[in-house]
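User: Teach me something about this protein's shape.
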Amino acid sequence: MNGIKEVLEHNDKWRALAFEISGDYDLAQDLVQDLYLKILDREEMNEAFIAISLKNLYIDSIRKKHHGRINDYIINTARDIVSDFEVEDCQLEYVERFNNLPMRQQELILESFDFSIRQIAERFDINRMYVHRQIHKGLSYVLGDDYKEYSNSNVKHLLTSDNKKD
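Assistant: First, the predicted structure itself:
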């Protein structure tokens, strides 16, 4: 998909997916609105990116509601729903490796796209070096030989393409 206009053409599809992920009509509407704000400046995206973004927005909303604590069932349910969307061949290997990481490491990596290491450490009340090591080790495993290019070019859209705050 190219740009927000093409994404908006499938508005009903995204709202249905958000409802399937959240099970709450009002929350689904909010998730789609947040999605549109998130992707406003993106030029390129695919259905898998949209689905993963909706899942991440849902997880963030649950985290806020439950003060940072969510259970594995919620994450796995959202992941199962999103897994129905096609991922480009070049990204499939990354996604498979990412799904093999421990849940905590996945969470830290996803958080790193929105927050600094300092913010993550404070949110989870853990050591900054631990956060840094877990993110580095996880991304190194997921991206393999492409990790050097990733760390040099800041191509964070390989797993998700949220902009880092801070």
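Now, about its shape. The radius of gyration is 15 Å. The chain is about 70% helix and 0% strand. If you'd like, I can walk through any region in more detail.
User: That's plenty for now, thanks!
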